[in-house]
Design goal:
CATH superfamily of the largest domain: Butyryl-CoA Dehydrogenase, subunit A, domain 3
Number of helices: 10
CATH class of the largest domain: Mainly Alpha
Shape: globular
Number of domains: 4
Helix content: 40-55%
Strand order of the largest sheet: 3-6-7-10
Order of helices and strands: EEHHHHHEEEEEEEEHEEHHHH
CATH architecture of the largest domain: Up-down Bundle
Largest sheet: 4 strands, mixed
Strand content: 15-25%
C-alpha cells in the first residue's frame, strides 16, 4: 500500500490525492497547494506592479492623449523613470540597474502600455533594446562608462538595425564599418524606423545608439555583422528625418539615422568582430516578450473600456451588455485576454535574460498576443460604436498602436517561419 502524504494543509486549494491499495486507485487524502499567480509570482513582483500601476495612473495616463494627438515624445517623463530604477530594470545593480528578471520586465511594459503604448515603446527601446543589450553583451569598460548614464536617464538610448531596404532580412543590411589604420572604424549607411532615434522636436539624436553594421565576410563567405556604440557628438552621426504621420505609436519618436563617414573609436566595438548575430538572438527574445506584454496591456485596457461602456450604455430600455452581439465581443475578448496573460507570463517565468535559444515561445507569445491585442481593441471599438471611433475614448488609439506589434520586433510572417523551423528541430516540445 502506498499513501500520498498531504502537504501545505493550511493553504486553500484542494487537489485530489490517490491512495494505492492492492494495485487499485482509490480516493484518499486531500492535498492542498497554494494558488499560483504566474503574473505575480512573488511579493516583490506584486509590489513592483502596484508601484508602476500607481505611477502610470498619476503621470502617464494624464498625458497620453495629448502626446498621441501631437505626435510628441515625453522626454522628461522617460528620464524621470531613472529615479524609479526602471530604466535599467534588467541591468546589474553595480551599474545603477535594478537587476530584475523577465517577469519584472513584463510587468512594467504591461502596466505602462495599458495607458500609453507609444510611451511604452520608447521605454522598451531604451531599457530593452539598448540597456539590456549593453548589460549582457558590452565590455566591462563600456558597461562601467555608459550603463550608469542610461540607467539614470542622463542618456537616452536606441538600437539601430532596420534600414530603408532591409528589415527582417538582417543579413541584407547595407550599413558598413571599415577599420582604419589608427584602429577607429568608419561607419557609413542609413538606419530606418528607429524608435528614440531622435529625442525631441528639434531632431536631436539619441545620446547613444547600438548599431549593427556589415564588416565583411567570414572564411565561408557569409556576411559578417558587428556591433558598435555610436554616441552623440561623434563626427558623421546625425538624424536624417523624424518620421511623422504614423498609424500608431505616435507618442514615441521614430527617426532615420544617418552615418556619413562616422568615426567610431575602437573601444566602441562591442565584443569581437562578427558577433552581432549572437547579440541579436539573445536580445530579440526579451524584446519580443516585452512587446507581447505591451499587447497584454492594450488588451486589458480595451476590455476594461468596453465592459464599462456596455454597462453604462442603454438601448431599447436595457443595458447593451444584455444583447448577444455585445456579449460575444466581451466574452471572446475575456477568453483571449486570459490566454494571452497565461502564455506571456508562463514564458516570462521561464525566460533567462541574455541567453539565446528560447525563441520558440518568445516568437509564439508575440505572434499570438500582437494579433489578439488588435482584435480585442477592435471589439472594443465595435461595442462602443461612434464613441469608440474617436480619440477621447482611448480604444481608437489602442487599436492603432496595436498594429505596430504585428510588424515591429519581427513580423508575423517571421514568427510563422521561426516557429515552424524550431518545431521541425524539436517536435517533442509539443508534448513536453
Amino acid at each position: 500500500m502506498t499513501n500520498l502524504i498531504p502537504i501545505a494543509n493550511d493553504i486553500d486549494g484542494p487537489l485530489l490525492a490517490l491512495e494505492y491499495t492492492n494495485g487499485q486507485k482509490e480516493p484518499s487524502q486531500r492535498l492542498r497547494m497554494a494558488p499560483v499567480d504566474i503574473a505575480n509570482p512573488s511579493e516583490e513582483h506584486m509590489m513592483l506592479r502596484e508601484m508602476v500601476r500607481d505611477w502610470t495612473k498619476e503621470f502617464v495616463e494624464p498625458q497620453a492623449l495629448e502626446h498621441d494627438k501631437h505626435e510628441r515624445f515625453n522626454l522628461p517623463l522617460l528620464r524621470s523613470m531613472g529615479e524609479l530604477g526602471l530604466l535599467g530594470i534588467s541591468a546589474p545593480e553595480e551599474f545603477g540597474g535594478a537587476g530584475l528578471d523577465a517577469v519584472a520586465c513584463t510587468i512594467v511594459h504591461e502596466e505602462i502600455a495599458a495607458s500609453d503604448p507609444g510611451f511604452a515603446l520608447a521605454y522598451l527601446a531604451h531599457s530593452m533594446l539598448f540597456v539590456n543589450n549593453l548589460a549582457h553583451n558590452g565590455t566591462d569598460e563600456q558597461k562601467a562608462r555608459i550603463l550608469p548614464k542610461v540607467c539614470s536617464g542622463e542618456w537616452i538610448g536606441a538600437m539601430a538595425m532596420s534600414e530603408p531596404d532591409a528589415g527582417t532580412d538582417v543579413l541584407g543590411l547595407g550599413t558598413t564599418a571599415v577599420q582604419q589604420e589608427d584602429g577607429t572604424w568608419l561607419l557609413n549607411g542609413r538606419k530606418m524606423w528607429i524608435t528614440n532615434g531622435c529625442i525631441d522636436e528639434e531632431g536631436t539624436p539619441a545620446d547613444v545608439v547600438w548599431v549593427y553594421a556589415r564588416t565583411g565576410t567570414d572564411a565561408k563567405g557569409r556576411v559578417q555583422l558587428s556591433t558598435f556604440l555610436v554616441e552623440a557628438g561623434m563626427s558623421g552621426y546625425s538624424v536624417g528625418q523624424k518620421i511623422y504621420d504614423k498609424t500608431g505609436m505616435r507618442a514615441s519618436n521614430t527617426a532615420e539615422l544617418v552615418f556619413d563617414d562616422c568615426i567610431v573609436p575602437a573601444a566602441n566595438l562591442v565584443g569581437e568582430v562578427g558577433e552581432s548575430l549572437i547579440h541579436m538572438m539573445g536580445n530579440l527574445e526579451i524584446e519580443r516578450l516585452t512587446l507581447s506584454a505591451m499587447g497584454l496591456g492594450i488588451a486589458r485596457r480595451s476590455l476594461e473600456e468596453m465592459n464599462r461602456y456596455a454597462t453604462d450604455r442603454m438601448a431599447f430600455g436595457s443595458q447593451i451588455r444584455d444583447f448577444g452581439q455585445i456579449q460575444r465581443h466581451i466574452g471572446e475578448g475575456w477568453a483571449k485576454y486570459r490566454a494571452m496573460r497565461a502564455y506571456i507570463y508562463d514564458t516570462a517565468n521561464n525566460l533567462q535574460i541574455g541567453k539565446a535559444g528560447q525563441r520558440l515561445d518568445s516568437d509564439g507569445v508575440k505572434l499570438f498576443a500582437s494579433t489578439a491585442a488588435k482584435e480585442i481593441a477592435d471589439s472594443a471599438i465595435q461595442v462602443m460604436g461612434g464613441y469608440g471611433y474617436v480619440g477621447e475614448y482611448n480604444v481608437e488609439r489602442l487599436w492603432r498602436d496595436a498594429k505596430l506589434l504585428e510588424i515591429g520586433g519581427g513580423t508575423l510572417e517571421s514568427h510563422h517561419k521561426n516557429i515552424t523551423r524550431d518545431l521541425f528541430k524539436d517536435g517533442d516540445a509539443i508534448t513536453r
